[in-house]
Amino acid sequence: MRIAVDAMGGDFGSSPLVQGALQALKERDFALVLVGDEQVIAPLIPAECKQKVEIVHCTDFITMEEGATSALKRKESSIYLAIEMLKNKQIDAVVSAGHSGATMSLATLKIGRLKGVSRPAICTLMPRIDAQKSLVVDAGANVDCKPENLFEFGIMGHEYATAILNYPKARIGLLANGEEECKGNEMTKAAFDLLKKHPSFIGNIEGNNIFDANVEVIVCDGFVGNVVLKTSEGVADSIIFLLKKYIKSSPIGIFGALFMKNVFKKLKKQIDYAEYGGAPLLGVDGNVIICHGKSNAKAMKNAVFQAILAVENNVNDKILSALEKYKI
Amino acid sequence: MRIAVDAMGGDFGSSPLVQGALQALKERDFALVLVGDEQVIAPLIPAECKQKVEIVHCTDFITMEEGATSALKRKESSIYLAIEMLKNKQIDAVVSAGHSGATMSLATLKIGRLKGVSRPAICTLMPRIDAQKSLVVDAGANVDCKPENLFEFGIMGHEYATAILNYPKARIGLLANGEEECKGNEMTKAAFDLLKKHPSFIGNIEGNNIFDANVEVIVCDGFVGNVVLKTSEGVADSIIFLLKKYIKSSPIGIFGALFMKNVFKKLKKQIDYAEYGGAPLLGVDGNVIICHGKSNAKAMKNAVFQAILAVENNVNDKILSALEKYKI
Predict the structure, then answer these.
(1) What is annotated about its quaternary structure and interactions (chains A, B) (predicted)?
(2) What is the SS3 assignment for A181?
(3) Nearest Cα residue in chain A from B65
């Protein structure tokens, strides 16, 4: 198995991206292809790993400030080269923490969509109270959606949850402003009617259900999905900020907190995005994992594991079958 | 000043609703009108308060399971009577923890909209890290919106934030999937162009900005607003659930937590919805405060204070002037 990691374009340079990929290599057996500036990358690779690592040299990459469409012309950029290799079956999966719009555009246009998929979607893993994960599909790829798109998101998310997260029975919920069938906007109401065809569809769910372990696959458009992700991050960050502030402002609080280190560590681990890795781009005819620009080494390592699991479990074949089975 | 409190229809019966209203009466000078079953309400009122409290008797109320439209025919229900009194200028404001859809429908259809308002909106207060509050408009009244609706939500929220929350310069942000002007869905992009007219508009904001004290008025449609509210509640509840779980699972954690009681109390106070009271229904020609069905006495007390502030500060006159000034 050959996994390509885009070693350019993350917010913190190549180092955490390469470190994370190398950590994955220590734990799992695969061939690692690092795409990026050889002068930067090569010194980061210890001698004992060199045999398992190939560097595809390039110096260009898409910065976060650039438009996604410019990626299509930048044939010497790291993500272009990585996607090109995936298209040519030289590698089995791509992991990138670079410009996510660029990765999506290139993957969709160069590799193409799976048969039956009208729009690929980003599938983000969210923490929940039982230490398992739920999936939000779409987490940002498609801001304006049609009911059919949401229907496909549900099917793709269900197959991913079953194949990769090992849920024996993943439930699909449609994110809405109330649980009753009459709730929703015009678009989600029409999506509700389509999703009813799927035996795992449990109806409308609300924002709090994302975390309460009563649903595994949360379907929404990419605008709402992005708002949900950012809102969740904002609440978690605010609570941690306030906890720290109140602890620091009281000597007795500081004393108490010394005994709570393990508690805070466990909490941090459970809500830390780095534990989850990246977000698969579902619906393209290849395995592409999109990572947060701020990914640290741990996040990259876990993203590489996700890529390996996607390849091993033939997620895309399962999505293809499900789309064929439930087609509208 | 006369404030009517709908003493029926909350999730926990009349008691917390009446208690909260009476607590408000102890701290502020106004006449309280309680609308509901006299047999239930009268025993809850201590002798020393009786002079300031009037009971408008009725036994019917709209349950949470009923449709909002049925409220229009239920002329002997508590919320119908309260809204009718507001329409007839017998009272200055209505506070209700009953069926919010029923309250909205009755207020909109019987009292009517302010001139220049195409859709009334629910304006929910959210906690933020600086212990001030931000406003989300619309938090659930209108699931399918046009750009003009969002423009009006921004203006109404801005006037409310200035008049009631005392922000000398409240900033208006449009909730989107990215900060750049190019981000947003078709509807929010068009709303962006309209909101540009307002000098306090700062452009697109993201979900995390709701809490970071960089924006006061967050504009979105009611579908997204409801998802934001429920997601925020879900994240906060989950973190508190996990904290408790991890503390309980470790003796040393339990010991440390004993010294953290004040820290947790401060945190709870800052993120407790009851501190905020209710959500004003902006855009109707009268003061209506919609409360959570689960409102406790403290929430009801604060909701009554909100109603008093709205009357004292003539919020609706200010909204009228602003809508006239910035009209499209």
Answers:
(1) Homodimer. Probably interacts with PlsY.
(2) coil
(3) A180
CATH of the domain at B254: 3.40.718.10
Contact: A263, B255; criterion CB under 8 Å: no
C-alpha A195/C-alpha A209 separation (Å) is: 18
Per residue of chain B (328 residues), give pLDDT as tens.
999 999 998 889 999 999 999 999 999 999 999 999 999 999 999 999 899 999 999 999 998 888 888 899 999 999 999 999 999 999 999 999 999 999 999 999 999 999 999 999 999 999 999 989 999 999 999 999 999 999 999 999 999 999 999 999 999 999 999 999 989 999 999 999 999 999 999 999 999 999 999 999 999 999 999 999 999 999 999 999 999 999 999 999 999 999 999 999 999 888 887 787 899 999 999 999 999 988 999 999 999 999 999 999 999 999 999 999 998 7
Residues 6 or more apart whose Cβ sits within 8 Å of residue A41: A7, A14, A18, A34, A55
Bridge partners for B6 per DSSP: B35, B96
Strand order in the sheet with B279-282: B53-57, B31-36, B2-6, B93-96, B287-290, B279-282, B121-127, B133-137, B217-219, B172-175, B201-205
C-alpha closest to that of B271 among B247, B310, B304, B243: B243
Residues A138 and A236 both lie in one domain: yes
A95 with A208, same domain?
Answer: no
From A117's Cα to the closest Cα of chain B, the distance in A is 21
Of A183, A208, A214, A247, which to mutate for an interface test with B (greatest number of B Cβ within 10 Å)?
Answer: A208
Asked if residue A323 is part of any domain, the answer here is no
ipTM above 0.90, yes or no: yes
Q: Could you tell me if residue B257 is inside a domain?
A: yes
Yes or no: say if B170 and A222 are a contact pair by the CB < 8 Å rule. no
Binary contact (A270, B242; C-beta < 8 A): yes
Interface contact A259-B252, CB threshold 8 A:
yes
The answer on A297 and A251 residing in a single domain is no
Contact between chains at A238 and B262 (C-beta distance less than 8 A): no
Q: Output the furthest CA–CA distance in chain B (Å, rounded).
A: 63
Q: In degrees to the nearest 10, what's the CA dihedral of B114, B117, B119, B124?
A: -80
What DSSP designation does A209 have?
Answer: G
Residue A325 domain-assigned? no
d(CA A223, CA B174): 13
Give the HSE-up count for residue B195: Cα atoms under 13 Å, Cβ half-sphere.
33
Q: Is residue A328 part of a domain?
A: no
Number of domains forming the structure of chain A: 2
Give the domain range for residue A60.
1-117+283-314
Q: Cα(B170)–Cα(B213) distance, rounded to whole angstroms?
A: 11
- A244: number of Cβ within 10 Å: 14
> What is the rounded CA–CA span in Å between residue B97 and residue B292?
6
The answer to whether residues A187 and A79 belong to one domain is: no
